[in-house]
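Entry type: protein chain
Record version: 2
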Amino acid sequence: MTQSDHEIERLLKRIKLEMDDVKFLWNKQWTKRVASLPEDIRTTFKQIRLYSIDPKTVVNSILSTPGCPVFPPLQWLHLVQWKYVDLAKVLECAHTTEIDPKQTHVIDDKVELSFHVTKSVSSIRNAAEHNTAFSMFVKALTFVFPQRWDEYSEYQTTLGRLFHAIEPAHHGQIIDYDHAIQNWVSVQWHIRITDPTAFDNL
């Protein structure tokens, strides 16, 4: 058994001790609905629940893996829990020129993560910057959730076509729309980011 297998086994034992999902009143409904989802999304549900047990350990494992994508540690923490990832912070990671002193962040009153943070040098202002940050995001996301590669690659291609078809003066609207979609997907785990009907109300 590898070290990774031992970590997963430890996490699974911990969740069984801390929480018995069967006791939740909505457990049967949750189980039934998840079972009806496509396999790749069902797998994502299982991964999110596993990673959310001890996200700090998961992130530390990722960062210690040779060849892992370059990505801000705090955004890794969001990503493994399927929370919204701030592309502006990702862009800062790509374009940083200086490093601030070590800082400590407390997440949800239970996870403390210490790391060096980059000084802000820019924000998402145009198609080129958005593509840089989103490409990094897709690499990181599919490092953790590889079954979603086709879906997010297709979505990135769609964004690229929108940027190409619309005047640069209006690119900010595309960036804002993507922001809204990313926020919605982060709280609606069953939605595919490539399903336009899921975002009719945005």
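Comment: DSSP finds nine helices and two strands in the chain.
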